[in-house]
Design a protein that fits this description.
Order of helices and strands: EEEHEEEEHEEEEEEEE
Largest sheet: 5 strands, antiparallel
Oligomer: single chain
Strand content: 35-45%
Number of strands: 15
Radius of gyration: 28 Å
Number of helices: 2
Shape: elongated
Low-confidence stretches: 45-50, 237-248
């Protein structure tokens, strides 16, 4: 830190738990330096990476995440009456700052593409599924295929659907055009380790994201983009599963459906889901009118 400070007696307070390490420190700085010290502690305000946030002494991966300020002595300097609520504020000699520190999880995604190095990606995964009832003509007994399958037997197949969430934070110019054009499409090329047509871009949730204060103490904002992708991977289980061009491949995706007559999974034509390059969702937009200026 470049700002001079004094740590008060009784500080720090430290705790260990399931969420990791937490600590608070109470320090005193000159009143005029309180905002500069706060920025030194929290850096750019991004919770998953340092990017200037102060480290806690002697413990790795613990960063400053918050600062609270109040007068160290609640008696303002001698000053006259105010007449402008928007520009005038009590002034003090000293400020007491409560600094908050937390363990920062290592959640930055190792990304194979060219993502802006001033942004961050985090990843999470969840599960779900769909069910389908196989047509009666597709059902046969293994012991004797000629024995009819009774009407009351319903062969219900569960198809796991894996939900992948990629959160892209501190984005200055989101790729609005790519988001609009790719929503509802599946991957044409391998993406996050999955083969063609196995990943559906379901949509994006965008929110404003605080980045930092500029030299004039004005807040600077970017965007946080939460992308949702749904994985549908069809394994043949010994049956013939056709690839994108009907030439084999062994694994199907969103454009593959069960053919009751042939008793296997096949790709429909025309395809129900169009394809696109999902990697372009992670390129900042350089042309066109930004969404926030429309």
């Amino acid at each position: 830190m470049t700002q001079c400070f004094k740590e008060l007696a009784g500080s720090p307070e430290e705790s260990w738990g399931r969420g990791g390490f937490r600590a608070t420190r109470r320090i005193v700085v000159p009143w005029a330096n309180r905002r500069a010290m706060a920025l030194e502690v929290v850096g750019d305000g991004y919770e998953f990476d340092s990017n200037g946030a102060a480290e806690y002494p002697d413990i790795e991966y613990v960063k400053g995440v918050g600062v609270t300020s109040k007068p160290f002595v609640a008696s303002p300097d001698n000053q006259g009456a105010f007449d402008d609520i928007a520009t005038e504020l009590n002034s003090y000699d000293l400020a007491e700052l409560t600094l908050e520190y937390e363990s920062i999880p290592a959640m930055t995604v190792e990304w194979p593409g060219a993502v802006d190095p001033d942004t961050f990606l985090t990843y999470s995964m969840d599960f779900g599924g769909d069910t389908m009832t196989l047509p009666k003509q597709a059902l046969k007994w293994q012991v004797d295929p000629n024995i009819p399958v009774p009407e009351e037997i319903k062969a219900v197949l569960r198809l796991p659907i894996i939900e992948h969430r990629l959160s892209w934070t501190r984005v200055i110019s989101p790729p609005w055009d790519a988001i609009r054009s790719l929503v509802g499409k599946v991957n044409f090329l391998p993406f996050i380790g999955l083969g063609a047509e196995q990943l559906l871009f379901d949509g994006c949730r965008s929110t404003r994201d605080f980045i930092t204060f500029d030299e004039l103490n004005a807040p600077q904002y970017g965007w946080k983009l939460d992308y949702i992708f749904r994985q549908r991977t069809i394994h043949g289980g010994g049956a013939d599963v056709f690839g994108r061009n009907g030439l084999g491949g062994g694994v199907g995706g969103w454009n593959h459906f069960f053919n009751g007559i042939g008793g296997n999974w096949q790709r429909l034509i025309p395809a129900l889901y169009s394809t696109g390059d999902l990697a372009t969702l992670f390129n900042q937009q350089t042309e066109g009118v930004p969404f926030n200026e429309l």
